[in-house]
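Quick entry between incubations.
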Amino acid sequence: MLKIKNLHASVEDKSILKGINLEIKPGEVHAIMGPNGSGKSTLASVIAGKEDYEVTDGEIFFEGKDINELAAEERAHKGIFLSFQYPVEIPGVSVTNFMKTAINETRKAKGLEDMPAKDMLKLIREKAELLEIDRKFLSRSLNEGFSGGEKKRNEIFQMAMLEPKLAILDETDSGLDIDALRIVANGVNKLKSKDNAVLVITHYQRLLDYIVPDFVHVLYKGRIVKSGTKELAHELEEKGYDWIKEEVNA
Amino acid sequence: MDLKEKLISSFWAFENHQNEDAYLHNIRTEAIKSFEDKGFPTKKEEAWKYTSLNSILKNDYSVFPKLENTIEYNDVKKYFIHDIDTYKIVFIDGKYSSHLSQTTHDGMDICLMSSALSKPKYRILIENYFNKIAKNDSLTSLNTAFSSEGAYIHIPKNKMVAKPIQILHFSTGNESAIMLQPRNLIVVDENSLVQIIERHQSLTDNTVLTNSVTEVFINKRAIVDYYKIQNDNLNASLIDNSYINQKQESICSVHTFSFGGKLTRNNLNFFQHGERINSTLKGITIIGDKQHVDHNTLVHHKEPNCESHQDYKGVFGENSTGVFNGKIIVDKEAQKTNAFQSNKNILISDKASINTKPQLEIFADDVKCSHGCTIGQLDESAMFYLRSRGIPEKEAKALLTYAFSNNVLNSVQIPEIKQRINKIIANKLGVNLGFDL
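Done. Structure below.
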């Protein structure tokens, strides 16, 4: 589904990713862990198509096609979703209206008619239930005055609405209390199928107790320096990142 | 003959046809002399430093349109707020259109300036209020000299006017260039409430210059809610001179929505006479092309314990230019004044520009006055957020622009106006978002 080859990326001439190789197949859950500043969020943004980052070398294939030249919205239309660490507030635009726009723009890109209002409402209700979201919440302005937990839950709600093939969760666990974490993880797990994939980006192992990864990669200084299974995440939780740094720097 | 000379000679021709008493004749002749002395404002004057009238003064305007024209309601319905019942005072090329209007004399007067100026029963009000707060600057003086038609609204005390009043000025393109000088007088007595919607609309691409003057008197505890919708054609220019006089505990808000026109200048002046007065001035400007919008506001706090709130948002694209000049004066007596001013702008093109200037003159020592102005671009991270959800660049820009100006709409009391403004914004930004913003 996603194949990244020797990816180098920089922002304002500062090199951040220095040769990433990663392959994610349908049905898999991958986790990327790493200390602060290792390039985790950059990788997420580069896959989703943020223009601030310049890909200086390497390739990103999604379902066999090179997506490097595609705009963020085109990647979204192909089925890539990024859950933001810091979702943006949009005053005056309700969660419902925002979702209508996002879904219908995606349908338009695929040559489909707008989703009938009735179906849209049904879908919204269904997915809101999955994330234990109150109906009143849906008429509030997007992310405006939302608590940290509400913002993250709303991100996963949007993911549920858009049904992406590849969902990238960038630090979705940060700022969540244990109940919110459980709801968010539960939502992600229910959306999981053999046809889609999840890339979890996190600093801590906590979220991975709920969203269990098939593979864990450690990102350090812009490279994947270690890959393993979920046991690697436990090891990192126990021992921290210093031993990895020592191994790499040695 | 340039426009100034033409106007002065037209004035004398016009004045000789007026059969009126010395009172109005004196006001008009004083006014034309004032205009003659001052001439049109130029960029040398501080208040006009960033707005040049040169390009609009060179046209050969028809000052008194000879031909009368009619228009059918269905052709202009879209310019009305038509989904609610309203009073309407409608002018076509400066002349009153009775068939498009809906006026009243039932317990209040919602009618014409020409009647008010000529009929004896209105004389006391005219003598008490007409031309009492309008400044004698050149453009206001010019309007005063020519003032003959416009809206006259008098709401007696303890009256809640149930329907909003729409004042609409259409120009039909009968003349290749026309100059209009509507004059409105609005007097709201104690404890009364009125909502007013004003719009100037050109129906063709012919050139129009409107130099409008509105005087509003708001007596004790009265409430006035005023909306100006400016979305005219690219050959239409508007100079709006509004003067608002508030008495104690009155509340007035003016929302100015500027989306159209070639050159728009809003001179909005508030004078507070009394305690615990609340004045609100809000605006959204979204322009492109070579459009120019200039907001020149004044709030004069003369007595203690009053408030004023100014919040103007501007979005400038292509080669458009904007000006915000907001002046707040707090007299020595006006202790405990709370005056707030904010002007935030987004430039969405490298060629667009905005000049913003707060001007605070505070002579009292126990006041809360704050002001802030910003100029920036649309937030790139926010753009990425929207686009990552499948929303294309143009639509994402529109949503963010809307979000940026949204707080100004929160204080709009008439839902149909909010809907209308949202539609105009979506239209202006060239998007169909699949829902009414």
